[in-house]
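Today's session is about reading a structure prediction critically. Students often jump straight to the picture, but the first step is always the sequence itself: look for stretches that repeat, for charged clusters, for runs of hydrophobic residues. Only then move on to the predicted structure, which in these notes is written as discrete structure tokens rather than atom positions. Here is the chain we will use throughout the hour.
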Amino acid sequence: MTMHSILVVGGTGKTGGRVAAGLRARGADVRVAARSADVRFDWNDRATWDAALDGVAAAYVVPLDGALLTRPFAERAARLGVGRLVLLSGRGVDVPGYGDPSSAVGRTHVDGEDAVRSGDVPWTILRPGWFAQNFSEGFFREAVLAGELRLPAGDGAASFVDAEDIADVAVAALTEDGHAGRTYELSGPRALTMAEAAAEISAVTGRKIRYVPLSPDEFVAELVEQGWPAGDAKEYADVVAAIRLGLDAHISDGVRHALGRDARDFTGFVREAARSGAWRA
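Below is the predicted structure for this chain, in token form.
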């Protein structure tokens, strides 16, 4: 590896994989680090950190939810001469009532953002809202395949952001000037309710998908019945609450500020996901 290598922590995940691909498309020397990658990296095994960080010029960091490890990682990166950090955080970190800052995920993002801001390495922070890819690769995919989205989201809307846009912003921040010290709030160009999102997926795929609004208590009870720990089920319900309360409907302009173009629309995401076979049973 050369001093021009770029480290992608979590390089096999939804954003990390896309960031690595985008960097390679620009001809960058990419070091993909994860537990199952060529460069083994385990957040819970600090002995793996130095090998991943050694000789890199910049790093994209996907933190470990529920752990306060971004700070020691950023400190280690500074000691090893890393010149730029791009941190994946989340929407609502500094919005009262958006989420519980004392929750496992909340603590991770609050402390992580403070760590990079107060550290010695130039930084960029990305704060995306709900990923559009949650419907095709994440939380909601099994529900889409089953034909029923059962969530405590009420009739609230979310401005779902395409993970491709998150990756494009990360690649720009890792490879271009002008992004240091910036916090980019990332969303799609419009907000959709869960019923509207289900209808768009139905229209493109031909699958019959409906949204069933649940109360938070009903949602938690269903997850517990499926085997979830009660605490985890409650935290999931609390995260979805931001949609129900109308806190995820606003449109953020981070994609335009970072890239000079509009964010990708949800309909385009659905068409691409369908073409790629995301919802084949």
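Discussion point for the tutorial: Residues 230-244 form the longest helix (15 residues).
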